[in-house]
Amino acid sequence: MTYQEEKLFFDQQMQCTITGHDGVIKETDANIFSWKVSTSIYDAHPFFEIIKGFLEIFEKEETTYNFPCIHLEEGKLEKICDVTIKINTKEVVILLFDYSSKYHELNKIAQQKNESVLRAKELELKNKFLIDKEKFKNSFIANINHEIRTPLTSILGFIEVLQKTNLNFEQEELARIIKRQSLHLNSLIEDMVDISKIESGKIKIVEERFLFVNLMEGFQETYSKLAEDRGLAFETYIDPNIQEYLIGDRTRVFQIINNVLNNAFKFTEEGKVSLSVTKNFQRTNKLSVSFKIEDTGLGIHEEDLENIFDRFTRFNRDKQISGTGLGLAIVKDLVDLLNGEIKVTSEPDKGTTFDIKLPFKFEISKAKPEKKKKKYSLPESKKKFRILVVEDEESTQFLIMKVLIDHGSFFVDVAMNGEQAISYMERRNYDLVLMDLELSKIDGYKATHMIRKNYGDKAIAEVPIIGFTARATEAERDKCLRSGMDDFIAKPFEQEDLLYKIVKQIAKKAAS
User: Fold this and answer.
1) DSSP letter at 49?
2) Theoretical Cys-Cys bridge with 227: which of 20, 234, 302, 446, CB 3.0 to 4.6 Å?
3) Phi-psi domain of 60 (left: phi exceeds 0; alpha: psi -120 through 50; beta: other)
4) Hey, how many other C-beta atoms are within 10 angstroms of the C-beta on 302?
């Protein structure tokens, strides 16, 4: 076979198709399949639906995906192709390599005798793709979580500073709106992170003894204020026969009830929302508690009820209401994790009722008083306390400096990275270090380790260090403490919480 003949044969085994980001075919040589210009690639074969997912996560740099041994059909024509998909800012290039004859030659006997092996391999490839996709998604959510929390820290922090200044009525209202929308954005991020944790099995149910009545009264207080602002009635009933202290996962119970109450208020414009908490049954040291949340809101159509707990699903047909559609999906997943039950009944324009049953345990003993947050005060000093802020975000630097300087008890120095921080500490004594974890050159973990291990001078080696980061997870907190830090605060943070932790560590150091 001559070179030209070989080239012609090879060209006939390839097909190049170019589409726009909308999936419409702009060019194709139709060597293998007779796809037409101006038709949609998504109609050509279901396999190409995956392009939509790739376009959603595309980030400007050209990205290539390779898929071996893909079965494609067009009418009676069947081909086994290796598929390469290249995505750039202007178009999507799809390259097909027809290896049907080679695959059939090499696998003819194997296909006859080992069809089960091939099916297993196909499932393995699909599973690997799903696993890789899941890893990418979780990584993507974690990064988005970090990148959004950082500017949110500054937005919420400066709004809090602004609200303490002399504002007129209109300015106060604008500040409240900005803060409310920022908190809403933060809650949406937390929803996505929670879903990711649930899917990856990273949420652990913790059984701890907590003041159940206190938790329920917290809902009464919070949502009574919201009801008053919205012109709604909020009715509550808490069964006095429920033990004051219960054993269970307080955090997850709070998430469940809070999400459902929040959903009820979101879809109720007039009338009332009610929360009824009753004892379902009790056996020895175990009991089941029923939570009934009713509203007189928009309601849900009967055909939509079976899908109400699906992710990214919203049923506000006649009204645009903000949200991701993740709240109730999280509720259902958490109820299942707690071995509980949840049911919903609803009627359009009349309201919705959620019935939730959750299991708890309790101790047959006298209740102990709940621990209160210990108060700390700065040691008496004729001079101000010096704080080193290690942070590379200019807006966060300014926010922390503003908070600490306005307090009146602190001098503040700022270092851009761990290397600069260590250099400052070698020249000046500090009473406390606020250490961001995501730093260039030397990150917060390594800088802390060096401070703790490399210096004989106690003024350096034993300085209190508080880590802070936008990666607000228990794992991150534990990593901070293991690296030698004394405490941890997540972004975005409340200014009172930040000051409390600073005063606490300085007071503890002075008392040691």
Assistant:
1) G
2) 234
3) left
4) 11
